């Protein structure tokens, strides 16, 4: 959703009014202007004011740190919290999600991905009549029907006049005063300094970023020193500064260059090195990526503080501690200095190495008590992880490391609802280097596992068979066992239970032979239990799942535990223990929702619908079937096309239809389909009442 825009926006009342007017006239509006003029602030302020007009809200997608235009759709889906685990194209998923909604979408910082953003906007606007898009970019996107609002610099005053000659202070002066007061704790414009401030604001062309950078220098300079030194630098930096885009205002070029010059040597070096980060970052990441003999770790904290004090870095406090953010304009400046220093390749490699270590550490920690924390840690670093993967896939000789990194993220792609992105990265990496290595063998089985979860069993089989063969060539027994395990999954969802059982037993024997105990191992036990249950041996299936449940409790593992609870819920139901079955299925659903695993969540929902229908609550059952149907559309082939996974659904539907009649069942099904994911989960777990019967629906048949 739209974040708060504190501190208050200064001097933009007319622009906000015009932007609101344009958003009422056109479905595509782009805010343009030079770097540092405040496009993002104006757009966010307007979006916050307009949000109430859109029943489905106003949502912001920050594209500044994105380097790959093909991921614009994924970034939008992540911002909108759209979880779709099918193999459908991302734009089709978004179009389907938005088609019936009234929503404002803010695409922030589009200029470096102009063609991709324009293409995405055109597709979504055609598909969703209730969608409005507000973009920020240094130039228009060129979309049909687009209206453009160009943001001008803030109003300045003639330094030759005085405070008595003007009815109100110009907005540039107000902004400078506010930021200077924040920097110094006591700055104010008065008779003695009015002309100096007016001169400075005019010299800086009323550009908000330039004014804020200049105001930050008052921590160490007097106003007179600031003004005179800035005048001196206008004559030298404008022509000499080659690190800024020549199309931008001289004021911004000069102020950024001067701010850079006023930094210490270590601050300048850190600024340049920080430009390799995408999105925000923490101090530990900075230490790993940026520190060396020239910038030692014991100088990092004061150097970061110096950049914050000079308004180069923004610092925010959150539950996980302090995070830092570099404005896009300042990141680009730092990046060009980093290139001038010849350090960009090394800095990007160190950035990649740090995030590779982070995701491999998270992979190890995933089988443990802090699964939710691991998920949130990687989610918070999503932009930087994507940047690291992009480095691997665009730098010669790094594709194998890209496979290694993409494979290590298996828990994130499969367990946390990012199947589409995982397949995007792994497909790209695998296409770049066919050498049979351990990294490639793992990437193949992970990609095959993703394809299974997407319902793409044909592609999954090909990937897994190749992965098994390459694991044998590479001498990687772990990858071989994982490939065999997932081939068992293909057999399971395609109802070949004898083959599935044989493959699962082979995989489990291999895991046991080299002492492997992790998420994959206990998941194989649950999947084997499903096969056993489908073949009629429910007591053994329960035994296997109770073992997994105990292992999960011992290690604090929850994701696989949810799948075990699904089997145990079905077993309890079959044994006539309805209350126990309901509690188990609801717990399964709640855990799955925590991680964004829709496959497990919707399986639990289908069980709960059966329980409701069998208990005489057919209205609730029909609505749950509708909610599940909507989720299946975002997962893939409903119930994998499996007769066995379909059995609870078919039984529940038959009971509900017999009780309600076809017409009433259909009406309630449609009401359930209107529930979003959170509403559906709340309904299924007892958190809300059953949907109201439509007024034109037929009465239930008793």
What does the model show?
It is a single chain. The chain is mostly helical. Helix content is 63%, strand content 5%. It contains 34 helices and 7 strands. The strands form 2 sheets. It has a 5-stranded parallel beta sheet with strand order 2-3-4-1-5, sandwiched between helices. Helix 5 links the parallel strand 3 and strand 4. Helix 16 (344-365) packs across helix 18, helix 22 packs antiparallel against helix 23 (457-474) and helix 26 packs parallel to helix 28 (559-574). The chain is globular, with a radius of gyration of 29 Å. The two termini are 46 Å apart.
Write the layout of secondary structure elements.
Elements: H1 13-25, E1 28-32, H2 39-50, E2 58-62, H3 72-80, H4 90-98, E3 103-108, H5 114-127, E4 131-136, E5 147-150, H6 171-184, H7 194-203, H8 208-216, H9 223-234, H10 237-240, H11 250-262, H12 265-274, H13 283-290, H14 300-309, E6 313-318, E7 321-326, H15 328-341, H16 344-365, H17 371-380, H18 382-394, H19 399-408, H20 410-415, H21 419-432, H22 438-453, H23 457-474, H24 477-493, H25 497-513, H26 519-534, H27 538-555, H28 559-574, H29 578-595, H30 598-614, H31 618-633, H32 643-660, H33 662-673, H34 677-684
Parallel strand pairs: 1-4, 1-5, 2-3, 3-4
Antiparallel strand pairs: 6-7
Helix pairs in contact: 1-2, 4-5, 6-8, 7-9, 8-11, 12-14, 12-15, 13-16, 16-17, 16-18, 18-19, 18-21, 19-21, 19-22, 21-22, 22-23, 22-24, 23-24, 24-25, 24-26, 25-26, 26-27, 26-28, 27-28, 28-29, 28-30, 29-30, 30-31, 30-32, 31-32, 31-33, 31-34, 32-33
Helicity level, as a percent range?
55-70%
Instruction: Please state how the strands of the largest beta sheet are arranged side by side.
Output: 2-3-4-1-5
Q: Biggest β-sheet: count, sense, barrel?
A: 5 strands, parallel
**Spatial extent as radius of gyration:** 29 Å
What is the terminal separation in angstroms?
Answer: 46 Å
Shape: globular
What does the average pLDDT come to? 89
What is the total tally of β strands? 7
**Strand portion:** 5-15%
